[in-house]
Specification:
about 0% strand, ion channel, Four Helix Bundle (Hemerythrin (Met), subunit A), 10 helices, K_chnl_dom, Helix Hairpins, about 270 residues, two-stranded antiparallel ribbon, mainly alpha, potassium channel, Two pore domain potassium channel family protein, potassium channel activity
Amino acid sequence: MATAHDHPRGHDRLRLRARLRYFYHGASPAAVKFRLMVIVVDLVIISFFLAAPILKEAGWAFYVVDYLIAAVLALDLAARAYAYSNVRDWLKRPIVWVDLFVLATLLFPAWLANLGFLRLLRFWSLLNSELFWRTIGRRYDDTRVEEITRAMAALVTFVFVVTGFVYAYFRGKAEHINGYLDALYFTVATLTTTGFGDITLPGNWGRVISIVVMLVGITLFIRLAQTLIRPHKVKFPCPVCGLQKHDPDAVHCKACGQILNIPDEGD
C-alpha cells in the first residue's frame, strides 16, 4: 500500500508540517526568533486596528492595508492550523474563533464595518495564546506575572472595544461624541464610575450600556487588584492530584498532602 513517503508531494507536505511545528512549537533559538517576529507583526496589526477609526478617512488606501493584513492573518492562521496535530481540537479553542472573526471583519469590511471595533479582541487573544507565553513568558515559571498580564489584557481590551463601539454607534448621535477621543473619554469616565456627566449616551439603551460598562469595568478592576495583592505562587503540578499552583516554599500539597520538591528560583 502506498504511503505519503512514496510520493514526492506527500513527502513535501510532511516536511512542511514538521517545519511549521518546529517554528511554532519548538524551543530552539531559531524557533523563538520566528515567534518573536510573529508577535511583533501581531502588535503592528493591533496598532492598525486601534488607529482604524481615524485611518478610515484615508479612503481606498485604508482598504488596501486592510486586505494586506487579512492576507497576513489568514496565512498565519493557516500555518498554525497545519502545524497543530489535530485541526478539530484546534478549532475547539475560543481564541481561534476570536481570530477567525477578526479575519472575517477584514475580508468583508463593507458588510461588517460596524463590528470593526471587535478587531481589538486580537490583543486579548494574543496575550492569552500559547505562542505568546511559550515565547515571551517562557522565562516566568510563577503564575503572578502571567495572571497580571492576562488581567491587564482583559481590562485594556475591554476599554478599547467599548470605545470602538461607542464611536461606531453614537458618533454624531450623542451630544459631544464627535471623535474617537470623546468616545475614549466617555468609556474611561464611565468605567471608573467618575461620572462627570459632560458626555452621556442618549435614551434608555444609552443608560443600559453605561450600566454594563460600569459593572464590567469594576469587575475587571477588582480582578486586576486581586492579582496584584494575592500572595505569590509558582506553577508546579502536584504529581498525585495535579494541583498546579503552590506557595514558593510549600513542602506539602494543600490538596492531597503529597510531598513536593519545588525548585528554588535560583536553580
